Automatic annotation (TrEMBL):
Annotated PANTHER family: PREPILIN LEADER PEPTIDASE_N-METHYLTRANSFERASE-RELATED, TYPE 4 PREPILIN-LIKE PROTEINS LEADER PEPTIDE-PROCESSING ENZYME
The entry's keywords: Cell membrane, Membrane, Transmembrane, Transmembrane helix
Positions of transmembrane segments: 6-26, 75-94, 100-117, 151-169, 181-211, 223-245
Main location per the UniProt record: membrane
Bilayer topology annotation: Multi-pass membrane protein
Native source species: Caminibacter mediatlanticus TB-2
Lineage: Bacteria, Pseudomonadati, Campylobacterota, Epsilonproteobacteria, Nautiliales
Source superkingdom: Bacteria
Entry similarity comment: Belongs to the peptidase A24 family.
Protein name in UniProt: Prepilin peptidase
Segments forming domain Prepilin peptidase A24 N-terminal: 12-94
Domain Prepilin type IV endopeptidase peptidase: 107-209
InterPro entries (UniProt xref): Prepilin_IV_endopep_pep, Prepilin_pept_A24_N, Prepilin_peptidase/N-MTase
Subcellular location: Cell membrane
Length: 250
C-alpha cells in the first residue's frame, strides 16, 4: 500500500514536470521566456485557465480542443506528460530511494526527453538546456569528480570521431549538441557503458534510416532522441550490461 502511494505521488509529480517540459519545448527554441506571459492558446491567444491546464486530465476533459476557439490541441502534450510521469516511477524503481540524487537523475532524464523532442522539431537544440542537462548529470550521484572526468572523456572521444568522419564524408558528421549529450552519457554511465549506449543508439537509428532510404528521402535524421533513449536503456539495465561487459573479458 505504501509503495502504491509513492508510485501515485511520483507519477503525479512527473506529469506536472511533463507539463513544464511542454513549455520548454515550445518556448526555448523560439527564445521566449518560460515564465511569462502565462500559457495561452496558440490559435486564439486566450489565456488558459488553471483548470484547463491540468496535466493529461484537462486534455481528456476538453476532448483535445481549446476551451474557447475549439482548435485541436496536439496529443503530443499529454503523451509527453504521461511519459514523464512513467519516467518518475521507473527511476524510483531503479534507485529505490527518494533523495537529492533521485531528483537530479529525474531532472537529467526529463531534460533529455525535452531535448529529444526539440531535436525532432528543429534538428537542433538550445545550448542553455543542453548544458543544464550536462551539469545535472554530473551531480546525479555522489561520485561527482568521477562523473565529471567521464563526461570529459566521452566528449573528447566523440569529438575525435566527429573530426575524422566529417573529413572523410565532407560534411558535418555530428552536431555540437550530440557531443554535449555524449558528456551526459559519460557522467551517467561511465566509459564502458557509454560505449554500449552509443552502439544501441546507432542500432535504434538504423530503423528510421532504412525507412527513409526505402522512401528515397534524405532528411537530416536527429540523433539526440536515439542517444537519449540509448542512455536510459543502458542506465536502467546497468546491472545486465555491466555483467555482459565483464563477460567479454572473463
Amino acid at each position: 500500500m505504501e509503495n502504491c502511494i509513492i508510485y501515485i505521488f511520483l507519477f503525479l509529480l512527473g506529469i506536472c514536470v511533463g507539463s513544464f517540459l511542454n513549455v520548454l519545448i515550445y518556448r526555448l527554441p523560439l527564445n521566449k521566456s518560460i515564465i511569462s506571459p502565462p500559457s495561452s492558446c496558440p490559435n486564439c491567444n486566450t489565456k488558459i485557465k488553471p483548470w484547463h491546464n491540468i496535466p493529461i486530465f484537462s486534455w481528456i476533459f476538453l476532448k483535445g480542443k481549446c476551451a474557447y476557439c475549439k482548435e485541436k490541441i496536439s496529443i503530443r502534450y499529454p503523451i509527453i506528460e504521461f511519459l514523464t510521469g512513467i519516467l518518475a516511477v521507473l527511476i524510483y524503481l531503479k534507485m529505490k530511494n527518494i533523495d537529492i540524487f533521485y531528483f537530479t537523475t529525474f531532472a537529467t532524464f526529463s531534460g533529455l526527453l525535452a531535448l529529444a523532442i526539440i531535436d525532432i522539431d528543429y534538428k537542433a537544440v538550445p545550448d542553455n538546456l543542453n548544458l543544464l542537462v550536462l551539469a545535472l548529470s554530473i551531480f546525479h550521484s555522489p561520485n561527482i569528480l568521477e562523473n565529471f572526468k567521464n563526461a570529459l572523456l566521452v566528449i573528447g572521444g566523440m569529438s575525435i570521431i566527429r573530426w575524422y568522419l566529417s573529413y572523410f564524408i565532407k560534411k558535418e558528421a555530428m552536431g555540437e549538441g550530440d557531443l554535449i549529450i555524449g558528456g551526459v552519457m559519460g557522467a551517467m554511465l561511465g566509459i564502458n557503458l557509454s560505449l554500449i549506449a552509443i552502439f544501441i543508439s546507432a542500432i535504434l537509428a538504423i530503423i528510421p534510416s532504412i525507412y527513409f532510404l526505402l522512401q528515397k528521402k534524405e532528411p537530416e535524421l536527429p540523433f539526440i532522441p536515439f542517444l537519449a533513449l540509448g542512455t536510459f536503456i543502458v542506465w536502467y539495465f546497468s546491472n545486465f550490461f555491466n555483467s555482459y561487459w565483464s563477460s567479454l573479458y572473463a
